[in-house]
Amino acid sequence: MNNKKRLTHAISGALALCVALAAPALAEDWKPTEPVTIIVPWSAGGSTDTVTRVVAGELTKAFGQNFVILNQPGASGSLGTRAVWEAPHDGMTIAAGAAADLGAYPVFGTLDATLDKWRLYLHVANPGLVSVRADSEWKDFGDLLEAMKTAQEPVTVSSGGLSSATAISMQALEKAAPGIKFRQIVYEGGNPAVISTVAGETQFTAQTATEQVDMIRAGRLRPLAVIADQPLELQGFGTVPPVTDWLPDVASAPNFFGIFIPADAPQEVLDTMDKVWAEKIATSDVMKEHAAERGALFKATHGEEAAKTALPFLSINAWQQFDSGAAPNDPSTFGIPRPE
């Protein structure tokens, strides 16, 4: 080979190397050099914890770095979320939970950071499900509704906290059926709340379908209605009717969960996570299978689209909490419109 050909080959090799370097593997713009912590502000085994562990596994594969879960329950989810907000905003500590909870913390006065201070990465919507023990005398939601209207003592319902699926669902039911009598028994998260109903400590629960599905399939719980205006198909069980079959005016919207990064994190962190979310999480067969198996709706969004997706249920949650007196601060102060 003459010198001219050697030079041509050398230049071609150099160009190929430059192209390879310029077109890196996914997530090279931000490559965390140590494990990233995702704080789940609820106890292990609940709907947030379960799906976030699946997400963490997918992110670990995409980034080539471990994303680890830290459960930090307390103060209806605000304790763990506050820990993320007070940590350095460098992408190394990420929050998880329901967007409706995240946006409502200022309404409760438990965290000042409003929804627009976070970059949202949403994945599944988990509907609330009204369920009783399998041996309960109440055979459908109409029976339970009648009991709450006529019982001398309030019917007990297990709850994961002030902003949990049960709390939000029961406020919606109370608004649509004034005069029903119930008493929430609060536990540290959805999983222990569901277990309490299975154990007979409480008479029913309205936590998410995801948190209940194992007990339903095992024949320990019987779902009566989904808090939605459409029926829910549960694998291994069948169809659960919507609560609007009995109470047409119940306010409902998809309750989306996700992970959240402070919006003032370095731009390369946000840009890289945007890319991973769009190219890996949104197309993940693992995520799709998990959602189908757990009775959840899978729809991965991020950024402005995620904020728009989260707003309908946030509006319902925040205004129900304020109107009931459970939350002291006017949601409109934080840019949360009253639901129509």
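Above is the first protein from milestone M3; the second protein from the same milestone is given next.
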Amino acid sequence: MYTSRISGLGSYVPENVVTNDDLAKLMDTNDEWIQERTGIKERRHIKKGDGNTTSTMGVKAATIAIERAGLQTSDIEMIIFATLSPDMYFPGGGVQIQDLMGMDTVPALDVRNQCSGFVYALSVADQFVRTGMYKHVLVIGSENHSGGLDFTTRGRNVSVIFGDGAGAAVVSRNETGKGGILSTHLHSEGKHKDELALQGPSTGYWVPEILEKNPQEDIPYYPYMNGQFVFKHAVVRFAEVIMEGLNANGLSPSDIGMLIPHQANLRISQFIQKKLRLSDDQVYNNIQRYGNTTAASIPIALTEAWEKGKIKEGDLVVLAAFGSGFTWGSAMIRW
């Protein structure tokens, strides 16, 4: 058995900045209301004509990650693409990444675990490398939320939260003898699937039914979130899965060099930080500037933290996520 490590990181966000005041022009909300509930000040949205899609943003992030890993595109043996907002209903975005990057006929796997998508994808990549099947696996999280949000007062509880962007990591065979991915821990609880969901279009609510829908009724092809319910479960599961990973490796919260939580809500991150008694230097948040970018949030934040020198060799880096499904997970990494 081999071990794996993250050999390269990259991220990309659209240039178009959308502030809370910008959203206040579209719906009954304001900067104070949004910041108080989410911690978000602004986010990035794809702008019509800027050439960005879920897949092309993923390519931009991946190109940076591969270069930083000291590799060529031809070195990548597998793509794992995490997103809930693919360019098309099918096929998945992974094959578009393969095509856009001019790769050979490498396998492309799509992961649909929403906010936990990157942690799940990283876990899959880790296993492929550990078994010796592949030496370099490209993992991408990318989202185009703005293309499917309800920017009216009706949808404000959800639409103020989400942003667009992409992050990527190259998971490589660890031949340095130092650090690497120690363990990953994954869970789900499908009985709560309706508390954070987008029900259509789907085979359960297909195009003819949508076209017949009274516009004044609730529209199931916009996301729905039971905010308080999700928050209460998130803070419990975040703490549980972080401690699960620490305990599995004989570690404690004080050993954490950097916690990168999924950027769902700043209040959730602050709650977990307080519960684990972590300092500000042990937790990295950037939801204030990017909002919740779902599968992209962890790799964007991880890339930024590394770029700023907040992650150093030997540090214990902990990734943790919770989201729709419900699904949640963590990854323990010795940098």
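Note on the second protein: Residues 227-248 form the longest helix (22 residues).
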